[in-house]
Each structure stands twice: as structure tokens, then as C-alpha cells.
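TASK: fixed-backbone design
INPUT:
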């Protein structure tokens, strides 16, 4: 793939995805600083960033020892799980099936919880402020690292993807310093929509390159895949809006028995957040993995027609359509 076609989308996708994660982290850090003081909010954030940097330095170079085709298959699969998950939720939010993410409401919830834990603490050790800031920056930061690896490793664009993520971090920090309040006016759902389209397109392309599948347009294939996923997503938004308008809204979900929520440690929470980064709808994730396995099997039976790449892409789009319709049609899917 030519540098111009691979580098710029990697930077853009990494920038937009990292921007979303950084905004979510900033909302919590601002809440900690406003309620409990800035000293330990900033200290906790800095500690998390330092630990993340150390982990990247220690383990980041291990990717170069893995065969490139394996990297393309692995990161392509992760990028598909990540991209189709984000695109699914962006479609449902745009259609009105689930509410838009509200950073202002998240800020209010966080400040309320922090005030309930005690007053502000400008002097001495404040473990509540430190750990709240540390946890959110650590969790969102590791998600950014995963995003950069998934976007960059498949096309040998780790450095451009890293630069895109770094730019997002710096911009969000600068905006946070300037406004001292949650970035409620940032169109997060539009960012997620764009990231979902780009990630799905490049995940499909890099996975196909690693299997390998034949693409009819060679290096221009990613542009066609971006257009394809965008059209499918927009068609789903329009169709779901019309369906919901004609039916008077979503069908009521079946009552679910309440579950007691147990407090978990940072490791368990981190594992849960990382899984949630790639898996939201279990049936969609399982369908993607099965379909990827079928495409991978086609390489062993020497099916080399360009139609295989088209069928593979169409199958992924069909999985997305079914996942969205399960929500808007009430086919046993909870609305999260």
C-alpha cells in the first residue's frame, strides 16, 4: 500500500479514537480536581501516564519479532471487533435507539460520588482523589495503546498512529486547561461514527492482506471499503429511524432480574474495560470470529477469486445489520 494511502488514515483514525478516550478520562479528572483539589488529581493522572509509558517502552518492541502476516490477521481481527462495535453503537445512537453519551451528565455523576466520599483535600494524602484519577487515566490510556497497536501494526504505521494519538492527548489536555470543564460540545458520537467506519474498513483490508484475500482494487481497496461501510451505516440509521417512528418507539424489553454489583479491584476492572473495548454484542463478536475463521480457511483450499474478498466484506456488513436490527426490533437484545 502506498504511503499516502496508509499513513494519513492511520493518523486520522488513531487521532479520533484516542480523542474519544481522552475526553472520557478528562471528564473524570476534572471532576476529581473540582471536588477534591487539583494536587492529587494531577498526581494520580501523571502516575498513570508514567506507568503507561514504561509499559510501552518495555513491551512495544516485541511486535517486530512476530511474522507480519500474523500481525495483520491478529490486529485486523481486533480492529474489526473494535470498529464494528463502535459503529454499531454510533448507528443506534444516531437512530435514537439508545441515548447519546453525555459528558456533562458523566461529570455531574462523578462529582456527586466524590462529594459523597468526603470534602476536598488540598493538604496531605488523598487516596480517593489519587486513585480515581489514576484508575481512569490508566484504563483509558491502555485502551489508547491498544487502539494505536491495532491501527498501526497492521499496516506498518505504528509511528503515524502514535503521533495521531499523541496529538489527541495534547489537544484534550490543552482544552482541559483552557476550559476547566467537561468537553460537552465535542461531537463524540460523530467521532465514534467516523472511527467505526475507518476501523472497520482498515480491519477488513488488513485482515484480507494477512490471510491473504484478493482485493479487486489493490491499494485503492481501503477507499472503497470506507465508502461501503459508510453507506451501510447511513442506510441503517435512516431505516432504523423510520422503523422507530412508525412503530412509536422501541419495544419494551423483558424484565431482567437485578444483579448485585460487587466492588472489584483495578486489575479486574481493567480486564473488563479491555474486553468491553472489543465486545459489546456477544453474538456480533462471535459472528465476526466465525466469519474470519471461514475466510482464513478459504486460503487453505486455494480459493483465490476476488469474489472471496467481496463476500467476506458483505458477510461482515450482514452481521452488523443483524446486530442493529436485534436492538430496534427487540429480538432479545438488551439496549445498552
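OUTPUT:
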Amino acid at each position: 500500500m502506498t504511503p499516502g494511502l496508509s499513513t494519513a488514515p492511520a493518523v486520522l483514525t488513531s487521532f479520533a479514537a484516542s480523542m474519544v478516550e481522552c475526553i472520557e478520562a478528562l471528564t473524570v479528572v476534572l471532576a476529581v480536581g473540582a471536588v477534591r483539589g487539583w494536587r492529587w488529581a494531577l498526581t494520580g493522572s501523571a502516575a498513570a501516564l508514567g506507568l503507561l509509558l514504561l509499559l510501552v517502552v518495555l513491551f512495544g518492541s516485541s511486535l517486530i519479532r512476530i511474522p507480519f502476516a500474523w500481525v495483520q490477521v491478529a490486529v485486523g481481527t481486533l480492529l474489526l471487533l473494535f470498529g464494528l462495535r463502535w459503529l454499531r453503537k454510533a448507528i443506534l445512537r444516531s437512530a435514537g435507539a439508545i441515548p447519546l453519551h453525555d459528558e456533562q451528565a458523566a461529570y455531574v455523576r462523578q462529582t456527586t460520588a466524590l462529594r459523597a466520599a468526603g470534602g476536598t483535600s488540598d493538604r496531605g494524602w488523598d487516596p480517593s482523589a489519587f486513585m480515581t484519577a489514576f484508575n481512569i487515566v490508566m484504563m483509558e490510556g491502555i485502551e489508547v495503546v491498544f487502539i494505536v497497536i491495532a491501527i498501526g501494526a497492521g499496516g506498518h504505521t505504528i509511528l503515524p498512529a502514535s503521533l495521531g494519538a499523541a496529538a489527541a492527548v495534547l489537544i484534550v489536555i490543552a482544552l482541559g486547561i483552557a476550559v476547566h470543564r467537561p468537553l460537552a460540545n465535542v461531537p463524540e458520537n460523530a467521532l465514534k461514527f467516523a472511527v467505526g467506519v475507518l476501523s472497520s474498513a482498515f480491519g477488513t483490508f488488513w485482515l484480507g492482506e494477512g490471510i491473504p484475500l484478493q482485493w479487486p482494487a489493490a491499494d485503492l481497496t481501503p477507499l472503497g471499503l470506507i465508502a461501503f461501510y459508510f453507506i451501510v451505516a447511513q442506510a441503517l440509521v435512516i431505516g432504523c429511524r423510520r422503523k422507530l417512528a412508525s412503530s412509536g418507539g422501541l419495544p419494551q424489553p423483558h424484565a431482567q432480574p437485578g444483579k448485585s454489583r460487587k466492588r472489584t479491584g483495578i486489575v479486574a476492572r481493567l480486564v473488563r474495560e479491555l474486553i468491553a473495548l472489543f465486545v459489546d454484542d456477544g453474538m456480533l463478536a462471535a459472528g465476526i470470529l466465525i466469519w474470519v475463521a471461514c475466510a482464513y480457511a478459504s486460503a487453505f483450499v486455494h480459493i483465490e477469486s476476488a469474489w472471496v474478498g467481496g463476500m467476506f466484506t458483505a458477510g461482515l456488513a450482514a452481521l452488523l445489520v443483524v446486530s442493529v436490527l436485534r436492538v430496534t426490533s427487540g429480538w432479545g437484545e438488551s439496549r445498552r
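COMMENT: Residues 3-36 form the longest helix (34 residues).
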